[in-house]
């Protein structure tokens, strides 16, 4: 393996700029340093190498033979490094990585992202599942769509849609008990996700305190969308957010027997690092998404915290 022990990078940068300009003053202006600081860094490099790199004359500096050899290689190295950084930055600017909550991705974003891509064909989109433990730490995630009530510091957040929820079921299941006329009628049917706290919250709002849901088997689906599929199949009553099932309701695959929707403050948000607010690709996606959301807030929403699940204690 090659020995890659190098002199301090600031010293190499100062030398390369001074050698290119043949002027410590012009090098200082380029690097945002003082002339004295450039001179100090060059002397530090000369001491490290044990050779003179410049011949210093009044109002003029010239390169020694050793300085000329090093200047050529240093210039090539910095050019190659700048080119690599530029290529990486360009590729990053060409791809928008969206980490998205499962329910939002499958019921809304997946059906609409094509419109965004048509409007911005030069920007590739990569959609990945939301992962609380690595939201912005890995996978080069640019933005995330999450469900919850608050978020950690350093992230900007925009409200998209409230998680207000209500029971839904298939028409056939409703007919099996002669129709659903009162909230109590739901208790005669299988309840999907009976341990979901949303059920107790909705029944309390409907005037039924402590309904008996214990006879229902507990099945954790992990996402509201999966519970909706069970409801469509007639396997029980699910507690869902109507915004995501407007087409399903319009087709008659599910019915919403009551107008009552309970809002416990949970919602879906668009979030991204505050320091990246003005990145072009983030701005383009934000400006496309927010006008389509019923509860969108253009100014950043207050800091809110997300959770690592797609269901239970946070909105799915």
UniProtKB/TrEMBL annotation:
Task: Say if the entry is tagged with keyword Ribonucleoprotein.
Answer: no
InterPro entries under this entry? LysR-type_TF_proteobact-type, LysR_HTH_N, LysR_subst-bd, WH-like_DNA-bd_sf, WH_DNA-bd_sf
Q: Which residues form a coiled coil?
A: none
Q: Can the keyword Flavoprotein be found in this entry's annotation?
A: no
Keywords noted in UniProt:
DNA-binding, Transcription, Transcription regulation
Gene Ontology MF term list? DNA-binding transcription factor activity; sequence-specific DNA binding
Q: Which residues form the HTH lysR-type domain?
A: 7-64
The Gene Ontology biological process terms listed for this entry are: DNA-templated transcription
Give one Pfam hit by family name: LysR_substrate
**Family indicated by similarity:** Belongs to the LysR transcriptional regulatory family.
What protein is this chain from?
A: LysR family transcriptional regulator
């Amino acid at each position: 393996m090659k020995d890659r022990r190098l002199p301090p990078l600031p010293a190499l940068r100062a030398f390369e700029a001074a050698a290119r300009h043949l002027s410590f003053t012009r090098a200082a202006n380029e690097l945002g340093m003082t002339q004295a600081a450039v001179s100090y860094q060059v002397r530090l490099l000369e001491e490290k190498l044990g050779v003179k790199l410049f011949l210093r004359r009044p109002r003029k500096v010239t390169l020694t033979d050793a300085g000329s050899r090093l200047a050529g290689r240093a210039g090539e190295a910095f050019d190659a490094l700048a080119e690599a950084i530029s290529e990486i930055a360009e590729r990053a600017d060409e791809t928008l990585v969206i980490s998205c909550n499962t329910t939002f991705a499958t019921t809304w974003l997946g059906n609409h992202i094509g419109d965004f891509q048509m409007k911005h064909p030069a920007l590739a989109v990569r959609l990945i599942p939301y992962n609380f433990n690595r939201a912005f730490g890995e996978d080069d995630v640019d933005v995330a769509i999450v469900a919850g009530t608050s978020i950690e510091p350093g992230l900007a957040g925009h409200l998209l849609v409230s998680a207000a929820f209500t029971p839904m079921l298939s028409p056939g299941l409703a007919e099996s008990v002669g129709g659903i006329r009162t909230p109590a009628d739901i208790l005669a049917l299988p309840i999907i996700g009976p341990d979901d706290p949303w059920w107790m919250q909705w029944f309390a709002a409907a005037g039924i305190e402590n309904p008996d849901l214990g006879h229902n088997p507990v099945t954790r689906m992990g996402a509201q969308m999966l519970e909706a599929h069970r409801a469509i199949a007639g396997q029980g009553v699910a507690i869902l957010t109507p915004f995501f099932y407007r087409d399903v309701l319009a087709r008659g695959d599910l019915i919403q027997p009551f107008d009552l929707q309970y809002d416990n403050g949970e919602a879906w948000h668009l979030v991204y690092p505050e320091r990246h607010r003005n990145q072009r690709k983030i701005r383009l996606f934000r400006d496309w998404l927010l006008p389509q959301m019923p509860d969108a807030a253009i100014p950043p929403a207050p800091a809110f915290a997300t959770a690592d699940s797609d269901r239970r204690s946070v909105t799915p």
